[in-house]
Amino acid sequence: MTNDIKSAARVLDMLELFSTRCGGLTLSEVARGLDLPKSSTLGLLRTLHNRGYLVREDEDDTYRLNDIIRRDGFARHGRILRVAPPVMRALASEAGETVLLGMPDAPGLVRLIAKEASPSDIRYDIELPRKVPAYCTALGRVLLTRLDAAGVEAALDAVPRAPLTGSTRVDRAAVIDAVAAARETGFAVVEDEFAVGGTGVAAVIPLGPGQPLAALGLACISQRYRQDPARLQANLGAAIARIADAMVGQGNM
């Protein structure tokens, strides 16, 4: 067996190992499970993490299969999970805020499928995998802009609109107005509605026909966002353009 074929077999063995486990695995556990040296195992883990197939949990230093791959398989979302992570890392470094990639889930819900945490000591963070409501999150509201009026109303009525903070908009008309504003500007901004002290700003990634609907967002400390919203929106817009361009390139490969 050539080295290239052996490496491919090890990658498949690793993905199969993770597919059988709902929880995370440490480096040592993966190395034991595959009977590989830790050095080789770490290289494979980092590659799969960088390509979006695995998610790394900083709290306990474990890796797990990306939830969207487990649920939907590779074909539908594999390309964006391959393209987005390096752009997200660069954006988190440039903006100094946490970056989230989300896709529509059940009506009224958004599934967070990838995250790059802010390098700042004080940062907004959220554990993945996670579903969040569309009515009070920036990712959710901007994804709602791709629905017609009846679709927006149906999505808002599909989940209870509970006041998560004192600033959460729960009135249907108020949320519809916020969605309309996001449709006009291209950005949804949600301040202190999902979590006190946190501001989200998000925009849809413009992908072609047949590609999954997705949005990229910054999860910011509200005080920092208010200091320079134009810069952060510009950073986000540039990152989205890079992902969209890379997706076109991937489609031509």
UniProtKB/TrEMBL annotation:
Gene Ontology biological process terms, A to Z: negative regulation of DNA-templated transcription
Q: Which InterPro entries does this chain map to? A: GAF-like_dom_sf, HTH_MetabolicPath_Reg, Tscrpt_reg_IclR_C, Tscrpt_reg_IclR_N, WH-like_DNA-bd_sf, WH_DNA-bd_sf
User: What keywords tag this UniProt record?
Assistant: DNA-binding, Transcription, Transcription regulation
Q: SUPFAM superfamilies from the xrefs?
A: GAF domain-like, Winged helix' DNA-binding domain
Q: Where is the HTH iclR-type domain?
A: 5-67
Q: Where does the IclR-ED domain start and stop, copy by copy?
A: 67-253
Read off the SMART domains from this record. HTH_ICLR
* The keyword Transcription regulation belongs to this UniProt entry's keyword annotation: yes
Molecular function (GO) terms for this protein are: DNA binding; DNA-binding transcription factor activity
- By what name is this protein known? IclR family transcriptional regulator
Q: Which organism is it from?
A: Novosphingobium guangzhouense
